[in-house]
C-alpha cells in the first residue's frame, strides 16, 4: 500500500511539472510570435503588448483554453513585484539623465496620466453603452456623464 502511494505522489508531481512546462511553452510560443510580428510592424509597439493581445484573442476564440495558461499566469502574477526589479534598477542607473530636466519629466508624467485617464474613461463609456451618442433621446439605459 505504501509503495502505491509513493508512486501516486511521484506521478502527481511529474504531471504537475509537465503541465507547468506545457503552459510555459504556450506562453513562450505566443511571445515568440509577438516578437516576429513586432519586427515587421511599421509602428513601434512592444512585443509584450502584442503578446497580450494575441493571448487575449487566442483565449476568446478558444484556440488556447484558460487551463492551458492559468497556472503559469497565476505564478507570474504572484511574483510580479520581483519581475519589476530590473526596471527599477534601470531607473536608478539613469538618475543622472533624469536629473537634467525634472520639470519636463514631471510635466510628461502628468500629461500622460491625464491622457490615460481620459482614454480609459471614454473606452469604458463606449463599452458600457456601446455608443457615445444614443440613437434616440428616450433610451432609458443612457447615462450622460457631465464632466463639468
Automatic annotation (TrEMBL):
<dbReference type="GO" id="GO:0031640">
    <property type="term" value="P:killing of cells of another organism"/>
</dbReference>
<dbReference type="GO" id="GO:0005886">
    <property type="term" value="C:plasma membrane"/>
</dbReference>
<feature type="transmembrane region" description="Helical">
    <location>
        <begin position="43"/>
        <end position="64"/>
    </location>
</feature>
<dbReference type="GO" id="GO:0016787">
    <property type="term" value="F:hydrolase activity"/>
</dbReference>
<feature type="transmembrane region" description="Helical">
    <location>
        <begin position="20"/>
        <end position="37"/>
    </location>
</feature>
<keyword id="KW-0378">Hydrolase</keyword>
<feature type="transmembrane region" description="Helical">
    <location>
        <begin position="103"/>
        <end position="128"/>
    </location>
</feature>
<keyword id="KW-0812">Transmembrane</keyword>
<dbReference type="Pfam" id="PF03788">
    <property type="entry name" value="LrgA"/>
</dbReference>
<keyword id="KW-1133">Transmembrane helix</keyword>
<keyword id="KW-0204">Cytolysis</keyword>
<feature type="transmembrane region" description="Helical">
    <location>
        <begin position="76"/>
        <end position="97"/>
    </location>
</feature>
<protein>
    <submittedName>
        <fullName>Murein hydrolase regulator LrgA</fullName>
    </submittedName>
</protein>
<dbReference type="InterPro" id="IPR005538">
    <property type="entry name" value="LrgA/CidA"/>
</dbReference>
<keyword id="KW-1003">Cell membrane</keyword>
<keyword id="KW-0472">Membrane</keyword>
Amino acid at each position: 500500500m505504501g509503495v502505491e502511494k509513493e508512486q501516486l505522489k511521484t506521478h502527481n508531481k511529474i504531471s504537475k511539472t509537465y503541465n507547468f512546462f506545457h503552459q510555459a511553452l504556450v506562453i513562450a510560443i505566443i511571445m515568440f510570435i509577438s516578437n516576429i510580428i513586432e519586427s515587421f510592424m511599421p509602428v513601434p509597439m512592444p512585443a509584450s503588448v502584442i503578446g497580450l493581445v494575441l493571448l487575449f484573442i487566442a483565449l476568446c476564440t478558444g484556440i488556447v483554453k484558460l487551463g492551458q495558461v492559468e497556472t503559469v499566469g497565476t505564478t507570474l502574477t504572484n511574483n510580479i513585484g520581483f519581475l519589476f526589479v530590473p526596471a527599477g534598477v534601470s531607473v536608478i542607473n539613469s538618475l543622472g539623465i533624469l536629473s537634467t530636466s525634472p520639470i519636463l519629466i514631471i510635466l510628461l508624467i502628468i500629461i500622460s496620466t491625464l491622457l490615460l485617464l481620459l482614454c480609459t474613461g471614454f473606452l469604458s463609456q463606449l463599452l458600457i453603452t456601446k455608443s457615445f451618442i444614443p440613437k434616440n433621446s428616450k433610451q432609458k439605459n443612457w447615462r450622460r456623464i457631465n464632466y463639468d
